[in-house]
Each structure stands twice: as structure tokens, then as C-alpha cells.
């Protein structure tokens, strides 16, 4: 990553964090429904999405704000969607859990765990058969890797040679169950060879490492036309959804990962390298905060959809 | 007008639509093996075998449909759809709506069902009502070779996910077949009558027609209505006939509770109420899994004799009460 | 008689049945995390977290049920059952029959559904009718804390697979709760009335009760019937009330086509026909996925005002025709 | 295997073969419905089942006759079941595709591919929690290994330490699709390590090799309480079901495997070792043929269930 890219990455990560914190506040104030935040996972989202080109497409899940904002989503419209307002990306019908934004290439978000894995192969098949350039990045969690669909998807993509970048954001939690309670191996990539799929696991809290690994994976896909599994090892710093007191979380584990907060790590690095000092970072944070404040203002002022929307867009 | 079997009619719809529209492709377990003719004409990209995994087959279809292709998938037997419910119901059925209309899902899911093969309830389970109950989906279930072809053509051209169930016992029946597209959502009157309307779909349409013959011998004029598409349901044709005859018997192989017959009866009881001259009756398969044993499997399905008895009771007295009319042979 | 929330009533049923019968165990995604009290009392063998995979959770339950245990599984939200349909429908529902009665499947599947959380159709989809349509299964859906407890106790003691759906909006409602087992298959008259019977289950029972209050103010006496168990359905209580009042409106949040309301209407139209004084009406959720947006989500669910309007129309004229009564607010 | 066991194995394999051939003839004569035979796979069934003890339980699928007969099923009752008669193991309700026989410990047969995999964990959980001795052997095909449930089952058995012997009968075909069209690796065992499961692949046409491998696997399970994946590499010598002209099968591949017919191999061995000569083998074949003829006679004379059976045993 160039210094410029690293600065851009920090701004995106700050934007995502501020967006999540605003959503938490709205939820706490009773203005938004339950929402799943990706606090702590910003480097994974930004590192991968920055490695994509405009032609590439993204499928994501319930923990999607990072992917959306890194892809250039307008925070006013994501926030409006979270509040169920008419100018949200899905006209308020999605709410926070399945936001897609076709214009950005973020397609078919599913909040059914594993849903995006079932759909990604088809999206890639379209690209391939219609001769469209670009690959398909499919984000999912370590929990989704427990669903059989994970294997069915990898296997089909391998057998049909589909250009899918599988991104497993291993954040150690599957709602209220720790990853170690649900599988015996340490890395999701252990499954890749038996499907004939290349893979790699990377420190998901180091945005440069993620970006480099994603770039290599994407190059491999573009070259071979074959799928690739990238695991970003990270941590869910907040609860599964809001509110969630995390009483079931081992405080030591949490402290360990808090010290590895990806934003902290990147800030320290940029400051140390003299790329962006503390003052510059503060200005950036203010800018980001203003953008999010404005987004919240927009969303709260945005009307709810009219009641006839209840039965529109059921059928094409 | 060529005569052909229902199976051939279905194949000819596939071929014509694949010729017509290069976005149409077909895949499933054994599709490329069993449909060599399609494979040869359209190539390995458009006619594909898949790994044995219904969930990802349906998911791939939904993903492809939303992004520019028009897949037809063969999931073989209806009960195997149990592995693909998320992809069909939660993804294809809901993601248009939940995305605020950003995506459409032009895809067709083929599956066979019904008695005739002696293979039991894990191959034979008429679950069409599940999909009628779910939003965003359409459901077709033809009774004639012409409809196997014409409805499938309409299904492939439709921009929504269509479940296309074929009744196993009809596969080798022959009939005249044209190039006509049969629009989804239009029922057909298969026989005109005055005294009673027999409403059905798929194989049991023919059971109703046989019963109507027998009823005619006894001076009773039965109208036979073939729903053809279960969702959207052609309420208008149903109600018009119900109002004309004042008596309705719904017949199907699927089990009774919350089946298509329940819906038809409920619609009639609401909207043709003042024209009804008798209770609305249902003759259905029993609330049991389908057995493999041949005589049991046959007994599972409504028979002409049961329809005749039911209709005569209905006409003989205006208050047939509490007569148990489940699919058990009488 | 202690007062408690529906959620607590459900927990207390679990605790009592696990104390009573050591074969009862519970598992699901987060069960051991979220039910610490159970984990502490009954230990890690009987209160288990699982990997995130609904299919194997349900399959494990079915396999365990057939061989001596009595599992209760929590599949969280009803739409997630789409991943477990094979295990519930094809295995637990059919393998007793297909094996000639060699096995039984005493298991309970818990899942929440219904409006209230603003999470949309992939968490909120009332699919109880699917299971009512399928053989070998039972379905319960309580409306009061007492039934959350009493019906769950009966479900756990039943030797068949029972789908136990809980309406999200009811979780924190309070009520008196006893130790009584509420037998499956018995509806309850929640309010006596003469002019019309409102038939419902789960949350919309309370909507009916609110409507009945408003109707009483206008001199209309509405009976409110709570089905409680959807399969087996208490036909007798339904028919007795329908015959008494001669007018029936069925109300539920699930969509209309082939829903429980269709079945109730069809039963009434068949077996209480000569006592009916008006068309049988249904007030249901629309044929659409549930939206997340709060006001839309609320509009999805039948409201007291709609029931009042519907009943007044029904009483005002004996041939209300073709009035569109879908769940859309009027 | 002792010489006595090898002789017993041959008799069982001959019995299975004769049973399958009789079922084929009945189907051809229009007396039986479609049926899936396991011709060519007898060594896999017999080798594994002979390694089990009475306390162990079996789950199987649509291709089950070998497992049933090796377990001691009465061919009169299996044949009656195939013909849908009242004294079949399932009172005629199953027909050929989901025969279970609780008295033999053959439980919960499912003809949904992968169905047995979903149930096996529960059967094993019961044994474990109720303190019953014995393990659970679950037979499935290479096709079933493509269903996500395969992975979900292995993973749960591993995490919960359930005594399941997973037996993948890799017969190279998944109905009308060759295994190589559906997966990129050669062996199903490739998936085992990532689930933390021990595994082994064995020549499935060599009954001794199967028996030895199964015995080792079972010993491992009994010792550790953990699951084990055994792959028996074999071949489906007849079509997917009856009738099926196998026109889609590569004749060379078929010829290769015909020459490796497990019955042929065992006969040759027993003759060569002087354990059972040709004359003794012929006597055995006659004995077996008579048993099957008698079974067919029994089944054909056995009445169909009475019509009221249509609605019995739906609910307990
Ligand atoms: C099929 C299904 N099962 C359960 C849930 C409830 N749920 C939502 S998120 C979640 C945890 C998902 O874990 P993971 O895949 O690791 O993603 P993460 O939330 O950690 O990002 C669960 C259990 C769901 N939405 N869909
Ligand atoms: C879920 C499901 N999908 C498809 C089928 C149809 N079918 C029956 S057997 C079979 C092939 C199974 O292959 P495999 O698991 O290798 O077992 P084999 O038949 O080779 O023994 C198929 C596709 C089915 N019964 N169930
Ligand atoms: Mg996770
Ligand atoms: Mg095979």
C-alpha cells in the first residue's frame, strides 16, 4: 500500500467505526432496531475492498457496514436504511441486516448465515457466462463456515471454475458461541485443499497485510479463473448485536484484542512512519465525525416509506 | 398439431426457450447426462451436471438469476427441495423485496412428485402449497402435455422464481401440443357443467374428468376446472364457475390441511357465499406420508368413484354434514 | 398463581420438564450461553451449544429422539428452519410411517417469529402452515404466558415432533402461570360472544380481544377463539362456535394463501355450512415478505380497527362481496 | 480374517448378489418398483458389518441391501418389503428405498441423500448419553459427501466426541454423474483432517482389507470415543436404478471394475488358498440361490398391507 492508500484506509476505517458508534447510539436511544456492528473488524473490510476494482462485485451479510462504506456507500443512505427510511439503499425495507446497493456492486446481501455463500456462485457464473470482467468477493463469518453451504459453495466454485474470492472474517464469535466450541481446527483455511481451492490466512487487524493478501488472492483468481479462500483473523470487539453486555466473553481475550484494535495499530504506524501525525489524525476524525453526524441528521429527517410500499416490489 | 408425451413437451419447451434466449441455461444432478440432446445443441456451459447438493444448485440459480441469467434447475423430486428452502424462500422469494426492488429472480425450479412409482414419501410429497404460502414465488402444475410445454415457456419467460411441479404419473401421457405460451395465472375449464364444479390441478384433473363422465351417465352435469397455475391463483375463473353451479368440490393429491383446496374453499366461502347451494367439499390425499406399497400408494390418491359419491351426496341433500371425505377409499 | 413473562414461563416449562425426565435435553446455537441457569442445574451434557448449522441440529435431534432421548432444540428464528426442512419434514415427519411404526420422534423445535423487532423477512416469517400441511408433525403457537408454559410441557411430553413457534412480540407480556399441562389440540374460548366468532392464535388473539372490546361498545358481541395448537386443530371447538354465532372471521399475521385461516375457513364452509349467516372472512398479513421499516412492519400485522370494520361490514349486510380484506391498513 | 470368517464373508456376498439379481428380475417382470442395487459393492458392506458387534448400530441409505443382509436380515422380509408386502420389515410402507430393521440395529434408513448423515449424530448421542455400549456405523455414498450435511455431521461428531464410524462407499457414481464431475480431489478422506477426524481409504472390493480397516477404525472409536471416516473405494457395477442401460458409463472403466468384482476376487483367493475350492463354492451358491428363491416365493405370496394401513403409524 502506498502512503496515500494507507491514509485513505485510515479514513475509511474511522468512517466505519464512527458509523457503527452512531448506530449503537441510535439503538440505545430507541431510534433504531437491533443492529450487528463490525467494530474491531474494520481492517478486514477495508483491506479487502480496497484491493477490488470497480468491475468486481461484493456479497455480504448481517455485518456489512464496513464492506458498504469501504465500497463508497453514502453514509446518509446506509444510515437511512438502518432507520428504515425511504431513501435508504433498500427503501427502508431491509433495515440494518441485508443492505445491498446494486449501483455499488454490493449485491444480494443475506442475513441468513451462509445465504451469501449460496448466492455467490451464481453471481460469479453470470459474470463468467456473460463475459463480464471482474471477480466476486463473498464475505462471511467463521460461523457461516459451519453451515454445510460453505462447503457446497466452495466445491461448486472449484468444479465450475468460478472467480470467487471467499473472505472468511474469522472474528472468533458466532453470536453467543465461541469459535472454539464449534470446530476443532484453528483455521478455516484447513478446509480449502480438500475442495481443491487455494487459500491463505492473514492477520485481519493489519490493514496492509489484509490488502496485500487480498491483492495476491485476486491476482490468482484473475489469472486462473479459480476461486480462492482468504481468512482474515480478527475479533468482534462489541457484542453480537446491540445491546449485548458481552458478559459471556473472556475478559482477557477481549483485552488482548482491544490492544490490537486495527484503528489503533494503523494510527500508531502512520504516526511512527511520519505519514500522518496525531494532529492530522485528529483532523481526519473530526471530518469523519461531521460526515456521520450529517448522515444521522439526514436519516432522522428522511421520511418513512409510505404505507403502500408494504406490498410493492414483491414481484417483478 | 404434433402429439407428444408430457415429458417430450417439457423438453421441447426447454429447447425452444433456450434457442430463443441465450441467457437461459439449465443445470442439476444428471441434467447433462440425461439431456444429451440439449447438451449437444447448447453446449456444456448452458447444460450442466452439478455436484449432488440441492442447496447450492438453487442458490447458484438465484444468484445467477439476479445478475443476468435465466436458469432452469432440475431438483428431481419435490421432497429434495427441503435442502433448498433457504435459497428458494429466503433468497429468491424475499431479496427482491428486502432490497427495495433492486433485483429480480427469473428462474424456474423443476421437480416431480405424485404417486406412480412406489418409491414412498421421501420421493413423493406434494408440497406445492408451501410455495403458494410464501411471498415472491409463483407455482405452476400442469395436467396436459400442452400445458407442460406452454406453462413452462411462460415460467421461463417470467421475471420471478417459478416452482414448476410435474406429476410423475403424467409424464408418459400423450396429447396435442402447440407452440403456444400458456400464461401463468389462468385456469382452464376442461369440461362445462351446470350442477357442480370440480376444481383440481395436475393428475387429479383427469380423475375429475373421469368422474364427470360417470356423473353424466347419471344425469349430473359437472364442470371441471383445471387451476394450472396455483400462484397466482385464477380467482376470477374459480368464482365465476362456483357462482354458476353453486356447488364446489376441490380435488387434489396433496394433503388437506392448508393445501390448495383449503385456499380455494376459503375463497369460495368468502366471495361466492351467497351463490353457494351446498357446503364446499375437499377430496384430498390423507394426512399421511405417501407409502411405497403399490395398493396403498394408489389408495392415497383421490379416485373417480370417491368424487362421484361425494357429488351425489352433495346433490342429494343440501346439508351434508360432517361426512369424512379424506382420501381413504370409500 | 405466580405472574411472569411469557419468556420466563417458557423457561420454567423447560426446567420443570428437565427435572421430571432425565431424557430431556436442550441444544442449539447459544443455548448454553443464554441459558446459564439451565446449564448450571442440568450440566453440559443436557444443555449444549452447537456449531452454527441448523440442519445437523435438527437431524441430531431426530436421530436422538428415535433412539431414546427427548430433545428440545432452539432454532432461533422461524426462517432459519429453511435449513432444517429435510430433517424435520422428511426424517422426523416421515420415518415413523415409512418404517412401519418402528420409531417415534419425541422432539420439540423452538423458533420465534412475528413483527416487533424490525429485522425483516429473513427473521420474521410465519411459516407455521407449512408444518401443518406436512404429515407426522404437530404445531403449537401460544398466545399467553400460561400457554407458553403449559403447551410447551405438553409438547415435550408428546411422542411426536412438535414445532413450537413463539411470537416475538409476546415474549415480555405478563400473565398468571400455573403448573398445568395444556394438552395439545384444544382451542380456548378467550371471550364469549353471540354475533361473530373471531378465530386466531398467538399475538393476534390479543388483537381480536381488543377488537371485541371496541365491538362491545357498539353493541356487537364477539366471541374470541384461540386455536393454541394448529395441528392437530380443534375442529370441534371451532365448529361449535361457528354454528353458535353463524359468522366467522379468521385473523392471523401469516400470509393468507394456504394459511391456517384458509384451513379454518374451509372447515367451517364444509361442516358448519347450513349454520353460516355470512361469508367466512380472513384478515391476514399481506402476500409479501415482512419489511424492516417500523411503520411498514406494524402495518403488516392485522390491527383491531381492521377487525372492527370487517365485523361491522359482515353484520351490516348478509352478502358482503369481494371486499378486499388483506392485511393492508384500511 | 480367519478362514472361517472369509468363508462366511463369501456366503454373505453371494447372498447379497443373488438378492439383488432377484430384485432386478422382479423389477424387469413388472412385479417390483424401481430399485437401487449394490452389485459390485458387496465387499464394502460385508467387510464393515462383520467388523461390528451386536451392540453397534447401523444407518444406511437407498443402497442398503448389503448392509441389511450382512447384519443378518431375513431375505424373506427384505424381499417382502421391496414388493410392498405386509411382512416386510417396514410393513410394506418403505418399499426398497428406506428399509430399516430396528431389531437388527439398522435404524432410520433415509433415501434422501445425506439424510442418514443428519441422523447418525443423534443416534450416537443417545448411545453416549444413555450409557449404551456400541458405536454407530453410518453408510453413505460419494454423492452424499457433496451435500453440506456431510460436513455438518462430521464436524458435530468431532466437536461432541460421538462414536460414529462414517463409511463412505465411494462407488464412483452419483446417479448419472461421475464422481470426477463433482469434486476435484480423489479421496473423500481429504475432508477429514479439517474436521479433526481420523480417516482411512481402503480398497472396497477386497473384503479382507475392508474388514481390517473397519476393525482398526472401530477400535479407534471405542478407545477414543471419537468419530472416524472410512472410505471404501468400490464401483457400482449396475446402473443407478433398475432399469438403467448404463449407456453413459465409460466401457473401459466398467470393464476394469468388472474384472475387480469383489466376489470374483474373494472366490479366487479362497480357492487359491485351498480354503474353499470351486466345488465348495458351487454348493454355497446353490444354497444361497435356494434361500433367495424361497425368499421371493415368500414375498410374492405375502399379502399387501390392508388399506387401513394407509393412515396408521403417522403419529405415535
Ligand atoms: C441460518 C441462520 N442461523 C442463525 C442466525 C442467527 N445469527 C445471526 S449472526 C449469527 C452469528 C454468525 O456468526 P459468523 O458467521 O461468525 O458471523 P459474525 O456474526 O461473527 O460476523 C447468528 C447465529 C442467522 N441469521 N441465520
Ligand atoms: C437429496 C437427494 N437428492 C437427490 C436424490 C436422488 N438420488 C438418489 S441416489 C442418488 C445418487 C447418490 O449418490 P451416492 O451418494 O454416491 O450414492 P450411490 O447411489 O452411489 O450409492 C441421487 C442423486 C436423492 N434421493 N436425495
Ligand atoms: Mg464470527
Ligand atoms: Mg456413489
From TrEMBL, chains B, C:
Keyword field: Oxidoreductase, Thiamine pyrophosphate
Residue intervals of the Transketolase-like pyrimidine-binding domain: 4-172
InterPro entries attached to this UniProt entry: THDP-binding, Transketo_C/PFOR_II, Transketolase-like_Pyr-bd, Transketolase_C
Matching SUPFAM superfamilies: Thiamin diphosphate-binding fold (THDP-binding), TK C-terminal domain-like
Top-level taxonomic group: Bacteria
Cofactor(s) demanded: thiamine diphosphate
UniProt GO MF annotations: oxidoreductase activity
Name this protein carries in UniProt: Alpha-ketoacid dehydrogenase subunit beta
